[in-house]
Amino acid sequence: MKKENKVKNSIDISRAWWKEGVLYQIYPQSFKDSDGDGFGDFKGVIEKLDYLESLGITMVWMNPFFESPMVDNGYDVSDYRAIQPRYGSMEDFQNMLDGMHKRGIKLVLDVVVNHSSNEHDWFRQSRSSRDNPYRDYYHWWPAEKGEPPFRHSLFDPEGAWTYDEQTNAYYLHYFAAAQPDLNWENSKVRYEVYDIMKFWAEKGVDGFRMDAFQYASKDTNFPEWPKGHEKEYDKWYGMNPPLHGYLNEMYNEVISKYDIFAVAEGAGTTLQDAHDIVDRDRNELQMAYHFDYVGSDQLKLTDFKAIFTKWDTSFAEEGWLSIFLSNHDNSRLVNRFGNSSPEYRAVSAQMLNTFILSMRGTPYTYFGDELGMANIDMPSIEEYVDVCALGDYKRAVKEGKDLGEFMKNLNFYSRENSRTPMQWNDSKNAGFTTTTPWKKVNPDYKDINVAKQDKDPNSVLNHFRKMVKLRNENKVLVYGKYELLDKNNEDIYAYTRVLDGEKMLVLLNFTDHNSCITSPQIKQLADIQINNYNSLAINNHTITLKPYQAVIVLLN
Length: 556
Ligand code: NOJ
Known about the structure:
By secondary structure, the chain is α/β, with parallel strands linked by helices. It is 29% helix and 17% strand. Strand 19 (537-539) and strand 20 form a beta hairpin. The site of 1-deoxynojirimycin has 9 residues, from loops.
């Protein structure tokens, strides 16, 4: 049934709801279990809708919840129009969506179509015979041609081609062997995807996050690539030129027909790629999600600032980005960019949330980061279930790496860290479930949980709410021009945001010691809007910030 209110009339793309919104990411398996099976579900989200509303967020991106054998926790879809039973029914989904809409919250769906599950009917058919009508839905290499040219797999240490006896051929999978890559050069595949997207748009969803979309188009002649090419994965494996045409086709077939937007996971390898994907006159996608920040926890603050400034400058006039520091593929924000020690955990989490919510671009907050949830200690490989971690481990064994060192890194960087259940209260299993949760709850939940932070006006949670409110009420934080101050300061990230005569100054101390900044702007200080300490040390043109202090001030 067509939802009249979803059908697009016209959007002023220079100002759009998906630019003004604050997005909150829910990993459904870990958010709230309503039926006592140890897995989060839709009814659990419904129970927590008032909580979501209380945060002030206006968009939710939910990781995939479609029918799946769950080899990669739902990033291996076996039926794009069916719900994975552990999350509930289609009716539960509709109730959850309606509940969100009633509260002014939009829903963004994860569209996982670079690959499907090997249990999808398309793949079952495709592998059954060489002349099956679905054969060309995937990439096959007949074994009589010899071994296929080497392709690296992100998850499988054996490489991206797997031999399939049934038809004496290899199929391609950039991720796990259970995630065969779809053949986007086949227009039938693309139109299947557009139909799936329309199916969900008709149900009322408001946006799409295009998973791994950069890899969708491939040179199907599969030329030999130079040795070592896999080290530059995105360059070699992504952004094959026809991709732009396909995205434009998707825009015409789906996006242009509804009041929805699509965000790219990734942004190509150059700024030009990113513009080509999101500039409005090209009619491809609407927002990009660049990954330059990913390794930046290892960088000096000046380099970190340079990354964000480069992206902002390049998108100042045209295009739109998302701003994020964490998600389900990375370990926790506070460990990577802040300080997880008891003394500084709260202030550093507040500082990082202030950053995300005061930059230009749509802010993305990963569930639990509004509490300062942290990494979990998992020193032994036996505790890991993630296909990526297990693949990396096998690769490390194969390559004869130092496994002690490997495990130390995995423990810190593994994405298992961000998948532990949400910490609602200090009751057993943090109030996430009444039974054994699918993944161990972080033992720090007695101290770090929603119920406790709710009551504390100075908690990370209440700071987050304050920041979201400030952003929601001040377009200067959404559209305002960004200008970096004191770029060589190794401790403090300082910038202004300016729109129509309104000006805000943001000061963030990224260190565990006092540090100061001197700027003529400091003379113009008017009202303090945000401060995660109860004082601010100002002396003439100099402000001294306490460890991880975060301040936003209105300037005259
Ligand atoms: C990117 C997703 O964010 C990640 O979780 C997933 O494993 C891969 N794409 C494969 O779909």
